[in-house]
Amino acid sequence: MNNAHSTISLTRRRAAFAYTEVSGWEKAPWKDLALKSIPGLPIDIRTQGLCVTLATLMKGDFHENIIADLMGRWVLDASPRNPISRQENNEKRMSPGHALLKACVTGNRYDYMAAQLEAYAISEQVKLFANALYGK
């Protein structure tokens, strides 16, 4: 597979994942709260780093936990790049956001940077679809 084709494929898979996640918020009682948290998410990841952003989301309200879990599901489970992996079998019982935070804290710097790049990319897609679907 050539590099251009794999990039397009990754972009499409990331977009499909983000669309499915965000469109599923249609009737969620916490949707409006989550939509208020989305616009600043890519900036938070770039300026504070993935670990601080995840920790901040996880200490927040339910809707912020949903966003952390979305990033965890993409980075740990759905991304074809698989930039960072779960460290232990018992992490499968953790929320995806918590498992991603643990993997980032305990993993090496290169894996952390790759995970942060994927988290940033998915946050941009989530922001795009949240705006497109709900105008927020």
What is the typical, i.e. mean, pLDDT?
89
Please give the CATH class. Mainly Alpha
The CATH level-2 architecture is identified as: Orthogonal Bundle
Q: Looking at CATH, which topology would you report?
A: Peroxidase, domain 1
Poorly predicted regions: none
Helix content: over 70%
Main sheet makeup: none
Rg is: 14 Å
Spatial gap, N to C terminus: 37 Å
Topology:
Elements: H1 3-23, H2 31-37, H3 41-48, H4 50-59, H5 62-78, H6 96-106, H7 109-134
Architecture overview:
The protein is mostly helical. It has one domain: Peroxidase, domain 1 (Orthogonal Bundle), CATH 1.10.520. The protein has helices at about 5-25, 30-35, 40-50, 50-60, 60-80, 95-105, 110-135. The longest helix is centred in the last third of the chain and has 26 residues, at about 110-135.
How would you concisely characterize the structure shown here?
Helix content is 74%, strand content 0%.
Features:
Peroxidase, domain 1; 136 residues; globular; mainly alpha
